[in-house]
From TrEMBL:
It comes from Anas platyrhynchos. Keywords: Hydrolase. It comes from the Eukaryota. GO terms for biological process: regulation of postsynapse organization. GO terms for molecular function: palmitoyl-(protein) hydrolase activity. This is Abhydrolase domain-containing protein FAM108A2/A3. One of its GO terms (cellular component) is plasma membrane.
Length: 298
């Protein structure tokens, strides 16, 4: 009862209530550990990290990593700092040698990079792309508390970190997002960086769903519906018709309001957490990246 009173009454702020209901950070399933300095280094510090240093990924049992040490060695991790002062954990997964595209992936709720690492390897291998991802403030190795304002700052910090590593995006980058990753922060990235799409080779967005929290409270919280009309890059929207968490109508509404939407994929019978198990999911992603995004370069 005391928790309910604190949630809804102290203070009666709709945005805080929505944030508590929207964000479900799990117990961290990994750690990002700075590597020791090489023997003979003249540095005064005993550990190196930060922008110029190297970091090591330590996966906990809860990460349930499904691959071998060989694949684990192809995962690079580091931390960067957001404009709001939070330390943001980042992960780069080399899935395919010589991949032309890198997918900037904003993952869903209630997971972190450790839990997603196996999924990234499988996805990147199947769509012939490498994967770059990050954890939201308060998730995994990222510090701070989850909030909409931090989401905007997190995606921007991840993008800035990726763009300073041109070897990771030889042809370009597209943004893929799931559930929580599809709201304000992903919309913010597309809007705030729309002028860079041409110059920095950013090609488009993959937007599997919307989020209905803004329908519950009189506040513009994570309101993708109102922002998507301003996106100027190609957008692929994928949604399961039997989604029990986010109603299928939200996917339809996004498609109707997005001026740059390509042919969507409505996966008949798919729910909220099983859409990647359907063969048409991967087939549509491959077409979007290899054909529709590639045509933007010409």
């Amino acid at each position: 009862i005391s928790q309910l009173c604190c949630l809804f009454c102290c203070p009666p702020c709709p945005s805080r209530i929505a944030a508590k209901l929207a964000f479900l950070p799990p117990e961290p399933t990994y750690a990002v550990v700075p590597e020791p300095e090489p023997v003979g280094s003249t540095s005064t510090g005993s550990l190196r990290g930060g922008a110029a240093g190297r970091w090591k990924l330590h996966l906990k049992d809860r990460a349930d990593f499904q691959y071998s040490q060989r694949e684990l060695d192809n995962i690079e991790v580091f931390v960067t700092k957001s404009s709001r002062g939070n330390r943001i954990g980042c992960m780069y997964v080399r899935c395919v040698p010589g991949a032309r595209y890198t997918v900037l992936f904003s993952h869903g709720n209630a997971v972190d990079l450790g839990q997603m690492s196996s999924f990234y390897i499988g996805l990147g291998t199947r769509i012939n792309c490498n994967i770059f991802s990050y954890d939201y403030s308060g998730y995994g190795a990222s510090t701070g508390k989850p909030s909409e304002r931090n989401l905007y700052s997190d995606i921007d910090a991840a993008w800035q970190a990726l763009r300073t590593r041109p070897a990771w995006v030889p042809w370009g980058c597209c943004h893929c997002c799931l559930a929580l990753g599809c709201h304000a922060e992903s919309i913010s990235w597309c809007l705030s960086l729309r002028g860079c799409f041409r110059g920095q080779k950013e090609q488009g967005c993959l937007d599997p769903c919307a989020y209905p929290v803004s329908r519950l409270f009189p506040t513009p919280f994570l309101d993708s519906i109102e922002k998507i009309s301003k996106i100027t890059s190609p957008v692929l929207i994928i949604h399961g018709t039997e989604d029990e968490v986010i109603d299928f109508s939200h996917g339809l509404a996004l498609f109707e309001r997005c001026p740059k939407a390509v042919e969507p994929l409505w996966v008949d019978g798919a729910g909220h957490n099983d859409i990647e198990l359907y063969s048409q999911y991967l087939e549509r992603l491959r077409k979007f990246i290899s054909q529709e995004l590639a045509s933007q370069r010409n």
